[in-house]
Amino acid sequence: MNEAEQAADRIRASLPHVKSGTLRFWGQWFGRPHDNYHRLVGCDTDQNVLKLYFNEGEVLSVWAPARVVVSPSNFKISGADRVRWKWFSYGKPKVPANLYFEEFAKTS
């Protein structure tokens, strides 16, 4: 079982008591600090990609996640090869034209 599958098992066992809050990717806030509140509602894996699903239809994909901490007071993924955050423009219909993403990749 790879790290993504192990993390998914721990997350599923902890739902719905996983820490919710604002997201940061390699130190970059999604929106302004503490401006958004995201609640994890599910997860799955595809090979070594951890896919996290949030309450507003957002999806966080994490390639080769490492050092995943999951609890009611802390949710943190300390390492990954790449992450992609997908969300629909807030307040607009959830249609393909309103779907956005940000992607971060680890480089040397």
Write up what this structure looks like.
- With 108 residues, the protein is mainly β.
- It has one domain (3-105).
- It has one helix spanning 3-14, and strands spanning 24-25, 28-29, 40-46, 49-54, 59-63, 66-70, 75-79, 82-88, 99-105.
- The strands form three sheets. A five-stranded antiparallel β-sheet has the order 3-4-5-8-9, covered by helices on one side.
- The longest helix has 12 residues, at 3-14.
- The radius of gyration is 13 Å and the shape is globular.
- The relative contact order is 0.20.
- The model has no long low-confidence stretch (mean pLDDT 91).
Question: What's the short version?
Answer:
This protein is mostly beta strands and 108 residues long. The chain has 1 helix and 9 strands, in the order H-E-E-E-E-E-E-E-E-E. It has one helix at 3-14, and strands at residues 24-25, 28-29, 40-46, 49-54, 59-63, 66-70, 75-79, 82-88, 99-105.
The biggest beta sheet is recorded as: 5 strands, antiparallel
Helical content stands at 10-25%
Shape: globular
Spatial sequence of strands, sheet with the most strands: 3-4-5-8-9
Topology as H/E string? Answer: HEEEEEEEEE
Strand content: 35-45%
Structural class: mainly beta
Residue stretches low in confidence (pLDDT < 50, at least 5 long) are none
Distance between the termini: 27 Å
User: What is the tally of helical segments?
Assistant: 1
Q: Give the averaged pLDDT, no decimals.
A: 91
Number of beta strands: 9
Total number of domains = 1
> What is the C-alpha radius of gyration, as a whole number of Å?
13 Å
